[in-house]
Amino acid sequence: MYMHDINADYNENENLYYLQVSGSFGRNRAMSAFNALLTEEHFKPGTNRIWDFRQADLEIYGPEIRTMAHLVNSTDKLHGRRFTSLLARDSFQFGMWRMFQGSRDESVTKHLVTYDQEDAVAWASSDGMRATTGKPGLN
Q1: Which of 13, 22, 30, 109 has most Cβ atoms within 10 angstroms of its Cβ?
Q2: What is the model's pLDDT at position 84?
Q3: Spatial separation of the C-alpha atoms in residues 39 and 55, rounded to whole Å
């Protein structure tokens, strides 16, 4: 599936949705992509996710990140418990996604923010069992 410059691939065996974001990623695009994903057949309760932002130019800042987090929190009852990895390219992205994660502390979704794809896959595909690459990542 391809939408809004987001390449999305669902692995049914691992119950894992991999979403690779490229290009400019601001609030409007984020909300548009989120709303489109809500109607995607594989984006269902309990599906774990990897959001890969390493090819994206993040144009979302503090207040917008918190607003997005609260909106996503409102869908938790629909999606149930899941594990989501957020792959960051640089310290700015890492910090913004940590802010997003912190704004979702009450969520049933558990997050890992990392620079490392191996950790992201291990976290999301094994329901939160963390890989031990020794590279930076916070859950």
Answers
A1: 30
A2: 86
A3: 25
